Amino acid sequence: MMAQQKPLTTAQRQPGGLSLVPIPLQLAALRPPTAPLEPEIDDELRELEAVSQNLEIHTLSANTRRAYVKAWRSFEAFCQVHDLDPLPAHPETVRWYVAWMSVQMDENGLPRFSVATVRQGLAGIADRHLREGLLDPTGHRGVSGLVRGLAKLRATRPVRKRPLLLDDVLRIVRSMDHDVYPAGVSAARDELAIWLGFAGALRRSEAAGLQLNSLELHRLDGVHVHVGASKADQDNTLPDIVVLPFGETPSTCAPCAVHRWVALMNAVDRRQTMTLLFAYQLDEHVCGKAGTGPGLISSADLMSDAPLLRATYRNRKSARIHEQGVTGDALHTMLLTRMAEAGMNPSAYGFHSLRAGHVTQARRNGASTEEIMRAGRWRKAETVNVYDREFNPAARNSVMRLGL
Ligand SMILES: [Zn+2]
């Protein structure tokens, strides 16, 4: 390659180099080469080629070169697994590779490749193609757009919400006006939503998506909540079942919250609603827990596919329960408002704080990873460990066994 670019004098092209009058190079180029290059010229070019390669290598730092080699190996391995050509690579192949990198998680459930690492991986692929004199597939708009999208997504990834422990939850629930009208109507709904998030470890979208028939009264367990599938959804035949257990006391009893709210939804008019609210004895179970009398509702009240958590309208004098369900966002806002009303600072918290709080409180009370995985419906133990790392540094930590 270098031999063709190196200007040669005609004299050098002559067999034996005997011509004394140099012929212009352009004319000489028209002649077919009649003999191989002289050995000493060949050696010189080889040396120059080595020098140029050495210079090229020094344009990259040793670290960058190592990163490029590693990036290329990773890309080659990806192509091999998926039976794709790495060199030259089609831009679509590079897009798939970027997508693959974006979804890889480490053992803590966090992204394995940062955006910077993804960019470096692409630089390695580009470098290899350019050195081979091939078109750079990473320069394609489809590839650069994907990386920009990933960077944006990662930048807006919300910070994990702080957990709300049992004491926090009780403080919020106790600050509500339960046995007055009209405030008691939304208080009943909000208390149930909070127990679904804390005891049920439900995500806000899961809580908002529940229907009346997602709930099942259970004589021994309290209430079973079918999450992720309604009875109408036959495709999803294996719904997760979450348990809301009877509370030791009515103040920690999620089934009581179920009974109170569903009874209010069933109230035919304002008078009946008021009667229910004023009759509430908050220190007595109304959930049918063994030895506490009948519950306020029965299984027949949970037959409908209407939304469980519904929007409420309330002014100073009256409250109404709408037909349509609440949104996950509304539950989030509700929690922050209730926290502020309870005199707590809601920044750094969200509806997810209830789920995070479930994990954290359960771990502090000695729950095993397996138990937490079941309650939170996690498939991987690593996800639970992320919560431990952030919120429970003392959990399963030998420092607690030093006898201090
Ligand atoms: Zn109860």
Automatic annotation (TrEMBL):
GO terms for biological process: DNA integration; DNA recombination. This is Integrase. The lineage of its organism: Bacteria, Bacillati, Actinomycetota, Actinomycetes, Micrococcales. PANTHER family: P CELL-TYPE AGGLUTINATION PROTEIN MAP4-LIKE-RELATED, PHAGE_INTEGRASE DOMAIN-CONTAINING PROTEIN. Keywords: DNA recombination, DNA-binding. The keyword DNA-binding applies. One of its GO terms (molecular function) is DNA binding. The keyword Magnesium does not apply. Residues 35-130 form the Core-binding (CB) domain. It comes from the Bacteria. Residues 159-400 form the Tyr recombinase domain.
